[in-house]
Structures are given as structure tokens and as C-alpha cells.
Amino acid sequence: MPDFKDHAADRRFQQMFADADGAEHPVWAEYAVRGHARVILHVEAHPALRGAGAAGRFMQALAEHARAEG
Fold it and tell me: What is the pTM for the complete model shown?
């Protein structure tokens, strides 16, 4: 999961992806904390990444992170 980060203070997961020109842009998910769980409230990709599959790859990384964290 390169560049996948949990910005806990901001309650936001984020990962960077390259667009067609090689420029890096974020995909992120805002979350709420409910006990030991995190509830995803909103997922968004930078406009330059839309339609490129970055959000799907991000969601896969998020699921892997959730499994690893239990």
C-alpha cells in the first residue's frame, strides 16, 4: 500500500496516485470514529484521477488496511 496514510487527527485516509501525465494527486476518505470502528463518510478522488481506476485501487488499499488493523 504505497503512500496509504491514516491522518487520524483529520479523520482522513489518503493515498497519492499519478495521473496520465505523471503528476501526483490524492484520493481520500473522511471517516467518523465509532468505538473501535471507523465509518467511512465520504470518498473523493482529485478530478485529474477520475475515470482512471484510482478510487478503486484506493478502496482496495483501505480494505487491506482495515483487515491488517483488525
Answer: 0.86
- Alpha helical stretches, state H, 1-70: 54-69
Place of cell 482495515: 66
Give the Å distances, CA to CA, from 28 to 12, 51: 7, 15
In sign, the C-alpha dihedral spanning 51, 24, 41, 57 is positive
* Pairing status of strand 5-7 against strand 24-34: unpaired
Mean pLDDT, rounded, for 26-31: 97
CA distances, 44 to each of 35, 68, 70 (Å): 24, 23, 24
Residues 6+ apart with CB under 8 A from 66: 38
